[in-house]
Specification:
- The protein has about 575 residues and is of the alpha/beta class.
- The chain has 3 domains: about 110 residues; about 150 residues, Reverse transcriptase/Diguanylate cyclase domain (Alpha-Beta Plaits, 2-Layer Sandwich), CATH 3.30.70.270; about 260 residues, EAL domain (TIM Barrel, Alpha-Beta Barrel), CATH 3.20.20.450.
- Helices cover about 60% and strands about 15% of the residues.
- The chain has an 8-stranded mixed beta barrel, surrounded by 4 helices. It has a 5-stranded mixed sheet with strand order 2-3-1-6-7, sandwiched between helices. A two-stranded antiparallel ribbon has the order 4-5.
- A hairpin with a 2-residue loop joins strand 4 and strand 5.
- Helix 3 runs parallel beside helix 5 and helix 7 packs antiparallel against helix 8.
- The longest helix has about 60 residues.
């Protein structure tokens, strides 16, 4: 719309100029006479200038014949007309030159402004792209949750550290690998939002515990790695590790929950022996794993023996998978007796591994490896089903449904499964065993990891009708304080206390205190590891309810256990017959 407007404006100016000139010229001629020829150059120059300024060569040419006509009317000689026409046209050309210059200047200014605007837009786009690239680079090298460096950036920094260490072997580097204890339990029980907030808080505390030159990175899940640069000695590394542990002592507040956290830490100090980054991280992870296995909330410095143990664990894990597939596990049954009546009341199911090369293996030979590898879950599920099936068979065969129970050990992994109660319901339904005939044994360590969650699960099991027992009671903690919070049926006194009977007076006092506490909470007490007559007599005097151990019987295979049940059943039948007579 801009171009037509300019054309119309030009036409109006030209027509107006011509009209003014045509009206003024006849009026000026009588006054000036022949001088009009010279005087007429003024309006012609003005018109030519205006026409030229607006860049209209066409209108500048059109004014010439009009001017010629007017001069002829005025009687101006031809030799005077030509100079006038040349003068007017010259002014027109001069005006046009200035007009073109002005238009060129305007066009240049306009294009300059457009280029300036486009340049600004381009700079903004470049800045945006630069920021986007920086963000992409940052995101590719950092953890989105904690904003810490990720595994990739940590590996890059570690690679430089290895090369630097080769050139300057006197400058020590160390890799610290952390895994937070019980994090999975917290994450599963309180939710991922709490878990994420907890991870962010953990990251900030780790950052505040190291030097500016060091790097802390999130490797994935709840695992973090720290690169300590230019350390002077192993002792300095240990001081840093202890500072990391100390930073976690204060509870974390997350979504209204106060959570106490601990970490298991593995350390690799000497990087000179390594060529590959993965080897360093592997050994640091192995050391961390040993710290976790040895009680958690501790640290271990890697040595070559740990790697050999890790390789053995991997082989054991492979063998366990084969054992499950080939059905190499067996259950032996240790009798549990009423100490007061000296009568068989049930069995504890104990798993054995009939290894094709090493023979019969006891739990001490493989359970730890099964727990670490996760194979304890399928093994435990099989033991639970097989023990319930076997007990139901014995109850039916010997008509002892109300008097015989079976106790099955649950690992911490099994106990913390979200569908544990449903699994047990399914087993009871499949085997037709009554819930009252099943006892589940849990270690103190399993319960103490998360007492609140343990109470909820135990209450659900009790509602189902299943009994719950604390195994190895007193072995790991000062348990009497938290015992009143756990709704369990029975407690099993650890064999270490039983072995003190007859040897140390304190053993009797401890057992008496445990029995008194259990009785006040309406719990039964089972003593395990009874090996002598004196131990049994002492426990009977202390009014311990049940006992098991080599003094009565070792763990028996199913056939031998069945023979014992048959003998007990016949003895009870004969006693009843004699009493009736």
């Amino acid at each position: 719309m801009k171009k037509p407007f300019n054309i119309f404006t030009r036409i109006a100016i030209v027509l107006g100029s011509i009209a003014v000139y045509a009206m003024i010229f006849p009026m000026l001629y009588p006054l000036a006479g022949e001088a009009t020829a010279a005087f007429s150059l003024v309006p012609v120059a003005i018109i030519g200038w205006l026409l030229g300024i607006y860049g209209s060569l066409l209108f500048g040419i059109l004014i010439i014949p009009l001017h010629n006509f007017l001069l002829h009317l005025a009687g101006v000689p031809p030799y005077e007309i030509i100079p006038a026409l040349i003068g007017s046209f010259a002014f027109t050309l001069i005006g046009m030159v200035f007009g073109w210059i002005r238009q060129l200047s305007d066009r240049v200014n306009k294009q300059t402004e457009e280029l300036r605007e486009e340049g600004q837009i381009l700079r903004e786009e470049i800045e945006k792209r630069k920021k986007a690239e920086e963000r992409l680079t940052h995101d590719a090298l950092h953890d989105p949750l904690t904003n810490l460096p990720n595994r990739r950036l940590f590996a890059n920094r570690l690679e430089h550290a290895i090369e630097w260490n080769k050139r300057y072997p006197n400058e020590l580097f160390a890799v610290v690998y952390l895994d937070f204890d019980r994090f999975k339990i917290i994450n599963d029980s309180l939710g991922h939002n709490v878990g994420d907030e907890l991870l962010v808080g953990l990251a900030r505390r780790l950052e505040s515990s190291i030097r500016a030159m060091d790097m802390v990175a999130r490797m994935g899940g709840d695992e973090f790695a720290i690169l300590l640069e230019a350390v002077k000695s192993t002792e300095e590394v240990i001081i840093t590790v202890k500072r990391l542990h100390a930073s976690l002592e204060a509870p974390f507040e997350a979504h209204g929950n106060s959570i106490a956290m601990t970490a298991s830490i593995g350390v690799v100090v000497n990087l000179l022996h390594y060529e590959q980054i993965d080897d360093i991280l592997r050994d640091a992870d192995i050391a961390m794993y040993h710290a976790k296995v040895n009680g958690k909330n501790g640290f271990r410095i890697f040595d070559i023996g740990m790697r050999e143990q890790a390789e053995n664990i991997l082989k054991l894990e492979s063998d366990l998978r084969k054992a499950i597939r080939n059905k190499e596990f067996r259950i032996h049954y240790q009798p549990i007796l009423s100490l007061k009546q000296q009568q068989l009341t049930g069995f504890e199911a104990l798993v054995r591994w009939e290894h094709p090369e090493r023979g019969l293996l006891y739990p001490a030979d493989f359970i730890k490896g099964a727990e670490e590898s996760g194979q304890i879950v399928p093994i435990g599920e099989w033991v639970l089903y097989e023990a319930c099936r076997q007990m139901k068979q014995w109850q039916t065969e010997f008509n002892m449904e109300s008097s015989l129970t079976i106790s099955v050990n649950l690992s911490s992994r099994q106990f913390m499964q979200s569908d544990l109660v449903r699994q047990i319901e399914d087993v009871l339904e499949q085997t037709a065993l009554s819930a009252e005939s099943l006892r589940l044994e849990l270690t103190e360590m399993t319960l103490i990891e998360d007492v609140e969650t343990a109470v909820i699960i135990i209450e659900r099991l009790r509602t189902l009708g299943v009994g719950v027992e604390i195994d190895d009671f007193g072995a790991g903690y000062s348990s009497l304080g938290y015992l009143r919070h756990l709704p369990v049926n029975n407690i099993k006194i650890d064999r270490s206390f039983i072995s003190m009977l007859g040897v140390n007076k304190s053993g009797v006092a401890i057992i008496r205190a445990i029995i008194a506490m259990a009785n006040s909470l309406d719990m039964k007490v089972i003593a395990e590891g009874i090996e002598t007559l004196d131990q049994m007599n002492n426990l009977t005097e202390l009014q311990c309810d049940y006992g098991q151990g080599f003094f009565f019987n070792k763990a028996l295979d199913s056939d031998t256990a069945q023979a014992l049940i048959k003998e007990t059943s016949e003895g009870a039948r004969q006693l009843n017959t004699a009493m009736k007579k």
